[in-house]
Structures are given as structure tokens and as C-alpha cells.
Description:
Layout: H1 14-21, H2 27-100, H3 108-127, E1 130-132, E2 145-152, E3 161-166, E4 169-171, E5 174-177, E6 179-185, H4 193-199
Amino acid sequence: MTERSNGGPKPRTRAEERADAIKTPSRVELMERAEALQRQLDEVREQSEQNLHNWQRSAADFANFKRRSEEEASALGEFARAILITKLLGVLDDFDRALESVPNEAHEGWVEGIRLVERKLRGVLESEGVTQIEALGQPFDPNLHEAVVHEETSDHPDNQVTAELQRGYRLRDRVIRPALVKVANNPTSTVNPRTAVEEG
């Protein structure tokens, strides 16, 4: 820009006028504003940490709820399976009784067919984890056997299972039906297996 001929100051441009119109904050104002912004930032960080903590707690609660729901559904499924299997064990008992008392005049092909159906049913139950509890000749175990008859005898050791009146079964590791058994009472036996187990 050129100087005026009269030697006066240069005329101001619009940009210079606008720049002068902008109020520049003082140092104190800038410090106060920086402190206010820092406080806001601290509050936002604290809120952010609280939100993160709440989210993590909610995520953990949901994971626990999901795990409990899956465990309850699994337990309910196992319970329903055990009920169904217990009902099928009654059918298996009927097969056992029928095969123990086959009339002499029964047709061998028909009897073999019944045996085949019984074996199939037993195979299905075994595939589901059902196993028979050993009872006959075993020491009486109240966790596995239910004594319905006590027999005074000197032919068997005391507390030995002498007869199985109804088979017992496990579903995996759980007894779903104890074996109904006859147990020997032998007064001449020198060692009581139940006492020996309790003392050991």
C-alpha cells in the first residue's frame, strides 16, 4: 500500500479492523479457562471410568446369568432324562419277568423275538449311560442296595447280598434306582463287613 501524499497514517484494511475487534483474553482469563476445561476433562474421565466399571459389572452379571441358565437347562434335561429312563426300567423289569417265566408251549421264534426286543431296549439304555448295579454276592452297600429281606443263614458271610429281587441301575455316576436285595444275617460270622468298613 502506498503512503498518502499528506503524510498521514495509512488507511486500515478491513482485515485489520476485524482483527482489532476480536477481544484477546488476558493471561488470567486463559488460565481460568484452562482450569475449567481440566475440571470438565476430569469429570468426563471419571464418568467414563464409572461407565466402564458399570459395563464390566453388567457384562459379568450377564455371563453369570447365562452360565446359570445353561446349568439349569442342563440339570433340567438330566432330570427329565432320569425320569424317562426310570419309567423304561419298569418296562425292562417286565421283560425280565416275562423271560424268566416263558411257558413250555411258547414258540421258540416268538421267545427269541422278545429276547431281541429286550436286548435292544437294554442297548438303548446303555447308550444313554445306564449301567446295572452289581448286587448278588456283594457286601451290602446302602448307597447301592435297598435291603427288603434279611435272611438268617450260616451259608453266607454277614451282610452279603444273597438274592437280587429287583435290579438296580446307575445313570452315569448317579444311582437312579437301588437294587432291592435279600441280605444275609450270619450270627456265626466273625467279621462284620459293615463294621469293618466303618472302622476302616
